Amino acid sequence: MKARANINDVSALQPDYMGFIFYDKSKRHVENDFVIPEIPNSIIKVGVFVNATSEEILKLTKRHAIDYLQLHGEETIRQCEELKELGFIVENKAHIIWLQCRNIVNVGSSFHAANL
């Protein structure tokens, strides 16, 4: 999702998830100056990343209040462990690594074990 009107139209349908692509080689990626418009809290915002650094992921997650991440590149187990240490909850679903980050703005010290 990257067009404000499209985001607003889809939000009105109350989907469970809405994805935002932070991979500049995708034609659907969001630009650096992109701001996610206000959407209902019931819609889970998913940030999609491909081979991004942990620092970039953390910065964009905080900036856009992303709820979950999907990592679709060649991220290593070490990077997933690093993200977990930053407060993300790591889950492996259907060979896609998901990271829960609802509380990442206030990084805590408790998280469950990764199923890597």
Number-wise, the strands total: 5
Q: What is the element string, with H for helices and E for strands?
A: HEEHEHEE
Rg over CA atoms, rounded to whole Å, is 14 Å
The mean pLDDT is 78
Q: Number of helix segments? A: 3
- Helix content range: 25-40%
- Strand content range: 15-25%
Summing up helix and strand content along with how strands pair, one would put the structural category as: alpha/beta
First and last CA, distance: 28 Å
Topology:
Blueprint: H1 4-12, E1 17-21, E2 44-49, H2 54-64, E3 68-71, H3 77-85, E4 89-93, E5 96-100
Parallel strand pairs: 1-2, 2-3
Antiparallel strand pairs: 3-5, 4-5
Q: What does this protein look like?
A:
- This protein is an alpha/beta fold.
- It is 25% helix and 22% strand.
- It has 3 helices and 5 strands; from the N terminus they run H-E-E-H-E-H-E-E.
- It has helices spanning 4-12, 54-64, 77-85, and strands at residues 17-21, 44-49, 68-71, 89-93, 96-100.
- A 5-stranded mixed beta sheet has the order 1-2-3-5-4.
- The protein starts with a helix and ends in a 16-residue tail after the last strand.
- The model is unreliable at 102-116 (pLDDT under 50).
Short description:
With 116 residues, the chain is an alpha/beta fold. It is 25% helix and 22% strand.
